[in-house]
Fold this sequence. Notes:
mainly alpha
Amino acid sequence: NYYFGTKEKLFETIxxxxxxxxxxxxxxxxxxxxxxxxxxxxxxxxxxxxxxLEKRHFHKVLQTEVMLNKxxxxxxxxxxxxxRNSVIIKSIIxxxxxxxxxxxxxxxxxxxxxxxxxxxxxxxxxxCKLIFDNMDESADPFNDPKIKKKVADYIKQLxxxxxxxxxxxxx
Length: 171
């Protein structure tokens, strides 16, 4: 507490540290000229699913902090950290549009759809079991590779249907 001054500053530092690792991975994906925009979206979806499942409790605390907004300064700092990462994801979407691979879409809502779907599916055991209703009570959905793959594949299919330019339809 002495070094950081407050618990809020400590939490902000932890968020910044974890966010920096994610941002570096996003920058690596963005810079890879061998991948198409759609392949980049697929990679970031896989990475986000993995990240949330590996640090599920941290993400739960983070989302709770943002939703409750009891500490506006901390909430603003977290928002700025999220924004830096979402700019990279939006750039991937915009590059896909510029290259003709994607339709013109609201890239902010694409980011919200990806992140929001993953968070909704994995931050609550109750919700996760409701989504995957054929699961037995003792099952652990957060350590089930089939569930992880199912969520990632669903979001990828959703992004293909929404993003990929189809010349047969009007954009």
